[in-house]
Structures are given as structure tokens and as C-alpha cells.
Amino acid sequence: MKKMSIFLSIRRSEKPASDPRVSSRSVTHRLPQRIFAGREGFTLLEVMIAMAILAIALVSVYQSQSQSLSMASDSRFLTTASLLAQGRMAEIDAASPLQMANGKGDFGEAFPDYKWEMEVGDVEEIPLLKRIVLTVTNSRMTKRNTYHLTLYKVVVP
Questions:
Q1: Is residue 126 part of a domain?
Q2: Is the pLDDT of residue 142 over 60?
Q3: Which of 42, 41, 38, 16 is nearest to 27 (CA)?
């Protein structure tokens, strides 16, 4: 390994006001300065430590991005499914009590991935009440793809 040394050359013109004999003179100074004495670059250990820190930071950023996308997908499903379930439940509530029966269906061309299933049952404690459970599912999603909405309706015989 070679050691580097840099010599700075400084020239300046001086006119001392106190000495009339010297009109102008050129002074050259050579100042030896050693910069980076004993170090000419990064060691392999320093580079590997920097790469490890960078890798840890990038993994955490990518994980955060992945989690953000998953949460956005879940919130989109919950919003859509709850609005579809409330709309279907309003139709069921507006229909006559005699038309209430178990059933299945879809939401048409506007929402091709969403299906609904309705279960009508009696409430044992109160004989005039019917329990209507509406389940909305998304066939594209593999996890957390169901939404349940329950309605209790008074049915007078």
C-alpha cells in the first residue's frame, strides 16, 4: 500500500506597508499534509455492516408496504360487503313475513364476486321473533372473506 501525501503550494503577493524597500515579492510555501494517513478506502467489514443495516431497513419497509396493502384490501371488502348486506337486508325487511325463507343468490353483474346466503330461524326465548342471518362472501378472497349481518324481526301470525 502506498501512502499518499499532498503538498499544497501557496503563492501570495505581499506589499508590506511598513517596508518601502520591498515593492512586491512572491512567497512560496510548501506545506506537507497527510490526508487519510493509513486509510485508502472502506474495509470489507465496514461494507458488510452497511449492507446488513440497509437490508434490515428494506425488509421492514417492504413488510410495512405488504401489511398496508392487506389492510386496504380488507377494508375494501368490509365496506362493500356491509353495504351489500344492508341493501339486501332492507329488501328482506320490506317484504312480507310469509316470503321469508332460507335462500342463496348473488348481487348481479355489478358485483360478480359477491354471493349472499340467508338463514331464517326462530328465537326460542321469544316466539314472535324471527332471526334472519345474512352472510355475504367474496369468492376471490381466501382469508376473511365472509361478512355476517343479523336482523331480528317481529312476525305476527
A1: yes
A2: yes
A3: 16
The whole-number pLDDT of residue 100 equals 82
Rounded alpha-carbon distances, angstroms, from residue 49 to 8, 42, 53, 54, 66? 36, 11, 6, 9, 26
Neighbours of 1 (CB within 10 A): 6
- Domain assignment of residue 59, given as a range: 44-154
List Cβ neighbours of 101 (8 Å cut-off, separation of 6 or more).
Answer: 120
SS3 of residue 103 by DSSP: strand
Report the CATH number at residue 141: 3.30.1300.30
**CB of 102 within 8 A of CB of 118?**
yes
Rounded to whole angstroms, the Cα distance separating 100 from 133 reads: 11
Q: Which of 67-71, 132-136, 142-146 has the lowest mean pLDDT?
A: 142-146
Structural domain count of the chain: 1
Give counts: helices (H), strands (E), the chain.
1, 6
pLDDT above 60 (res 29) = no
Has residue 1 been placed in a domain?
A: no
Question: CA-CA distance, 128 to 111, in Å (whole number)?
Answer: 35
pTM above 0.85, yes or no: no
